[in-house]
Amino acid sequence: QLQLVESGGGLVQPGGSLRLSCAASGFTLDYYVIGWFRQAPGKEREGVSCISRSSGSTKYADSVKGRFTISRDNAKNTVYLQMNSLKTEDTAVYHCAAYRTTVQAMCVMYPSFFGSWGQGTQVTVSS
């Protein structure tokens, strides 16, 4: 059974950093695009970043460009989201999600593409 488990969330001060992990079990990440999404209370779910199967393509929301970096380690079946220079507006529950594809070097951040989702990890940025 496909399962994604996020970890690494927590409370951090503005300007701080966190690294989120998304560990997959029950399937091999090699064949999947992985995306990170977030949802703050009272707001719509937002696509944050995605990474292609080959890591040759990554995408970021404009709100996180230059601050967040997505990467994957297929040997560890894990995808990471390094978040630097965190702002209060980054506060949200962060979910990772996956979709299987034959395309090596492209990813999209449309939630409807993603068939498997993790439960999420809370990120709170506050002084």
Describe this structure in words.
The chain is an all-beta fold. It is 0% helix and 48% strand. The chain contains no helices and eleven strands. It has strands spanning 3-7, 10-12, 18-25, 32-39, 46-51, 58-60, 68-73, 78-83, 92-100, 116-117, 121-125. The protein is globular, with a radius of gyration of 14 Å.
Order of helices and strands: EEEEEEEEEEE
Task: Return Rg in Å.
Answer: 14 Å
Q: Can you tell me the overall shape?
A: globular
Largest sheet: 7 strands, mixed
Structural class of the helices, strands and pairings? mainly beta
Count every beta strand, where a strand is a DSSP E run of 2 or more residues.
11
Mean pLDDT: 95
Beta-strand residue percentage: over 45%
Task: Show unreliable segments.
Answer: none
Helix content: under 10%
Write the layout of secondary structure elements.
Layout (H helix, E strand, L loop, with lengths): L2 E5 L2 E3 L5 E8 L6 E8 L6 E6 L6 E3 L7 E6 L4 E6 L8 E9 L15 E2 L3 E5 L2
Considering the chains and any ligands shown, give keywords for the structure.
mainly beta; 7-stranded mixed beta sheet
Summarize the structure.
With 127 residues, this protein is mainly beta.
